[in-house]
Design a protein that fits this description.
Elements: E1 2-7, H1 11-14, E2 20-22, E3 25-27, H2 31-39, E4 43-47, E5 67-71, E6 82-86, E7 92-94, H3 100-103, E8 108-112, E9 117-122, H4 130-151, E10 157-162, H5 175-178, H6 186-197, E11 201-202, H7 203-207, E12 216-217, E13 229-230, E14 233-237, E15 245-250, E16 262-266
Parallel strand pairs: 1-4, 9-10
Antiparallel strand pairs: 1-16, 2-3, 4-6, 5-6, 7-8, 8-9, 10-14, 11-14, 12-13, 15-16
Amino acid sequence: MKIVSWNVNGYRSITGQNKTKRYDEVKHQNYLFEFIKDLSVDIICLQETKCREADINEELKAPEGYYSYFSDCQIKKGYSGVAIISKLEAKSINRNIGIEEFDNEGRFLEVDFGEFIVYSIYFPSGTSGRDRIDYKLKFYNAVVDYIEQKRILGYKIIICGDYNTAHKEIDLARPKENVKNSGFLPEEREKFELFLNKGYFDTFRQFNSNPNQYTWWSMRGSAKSNNIGWRIDYILNTQNLKENTKDAKIYQNITGSDHCPITIDIDI
């Protein structure tokens, strides 16, 4: 199976429901469905959908032959949101951690496929101030505590998401300049390591230890063309999937968002 995680920075834009403008060319292009078809994706986890499911045109909720599941922000229009599109039908779906201040932002989606559980999670950014950094750190704790209840029971778990944290210096182009900025703060990196300490593993680093491998670039200046980026999108798996995980890649050349998709190939 090929499983993907992608912060799409607006579901209606990346599917062509809303027009996009690039180099003065205005068009409607469904980058998402094209990518799913080209890579024969089995499951794709999306973050920052920025819309409610009810606002999506019916034919754009999933490609033919796929199911779609959405978790929407309840308190702010055009904000946050996650989704999972899959060839497999879910056995059960959960959109809540059980803590209102997190559940109402639409950052969490759990889909149980029977043999394994997949999560699409959009971890908060802390760039707007100390309050949001604290919110982000508490969100990390809540997610780890919730999923840990499943892991200790032996479930096979795949956690896809925009974690909004670069783990190590190798994971961003300018670590020294960003050590005091949200996304690379010591306390944020410690929260990311909660997952690793519980036994999850970073699927990409299992196969690739090279630098300059990023998943997000600022839209300011020439960050993308100069590859001044951050690796803040991850797929973390439980140890009972380590032998099953056969490959992991970052598709830096795929357009349609300020993030690029990441994938794993897995026998499951």
